[in-house]
């Protein structure tokens, strides 16, 4: 791997850079900007999702899950969270199951955020 791009789409446990790399057409500044937005936005998105769930506002849970899709998708996380996101969109599962789905989304997104921060440090 080169000094400028030590990470490739297969370098991480969770995030997948192939979509960003395709969009950027080699523009590392663009890639860095997109990753930075994810790092800044995902904690807020997760906080809202958990807040709405705790308040029992399931319409807002559904909206929050839908709103998170672009952020999740850009780093290739949608396949890892497909079951959980679909369950939150449908809201047909039991409360305990939905709660587990939110915990999974939270764990995956926080781990992906840590990987994204590591990636940001690698950009020249």
UniProtKB/TrEMBL annotation:
It comes from the Bacteria. GO terms for biological process: phosphorelay signal transduction system. This is HPt domain-containing protein. It comes from Pedobacter steynii. The modification Phosphohistidine is found at residue 66. Residues 27-124 form the HPt domain. GO terms for molecular function: protein kinase activity. Keywords: Phosphoprotein.
């Amino acid at each position: 791997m080169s000094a400028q791009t030590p990470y490739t789409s297969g370098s991480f446990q969770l995030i997948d850079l192939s979509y960003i790399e395709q969009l950027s057409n080699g523009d590392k500044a663009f890639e860095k900007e997109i990753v930075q937005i994810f790092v800044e936005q995902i904690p807020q998105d997760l906080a809202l999702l958990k807040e709405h769930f705790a308040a029992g506002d399931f319409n807002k849970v559904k909206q929050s899950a839908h709103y998170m899709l672009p952020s999740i998708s850009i780093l290739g996380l949608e396949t890892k969270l497909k079951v959980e996101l679909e369950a939150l969109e449908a809201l047909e599962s039991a409360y305990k199951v939905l709660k587990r789905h939110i915990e999974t989304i939270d764990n995956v997104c926080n781990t992906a955020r840590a990987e994204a921060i590591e990636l940001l440090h690698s950009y020249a």
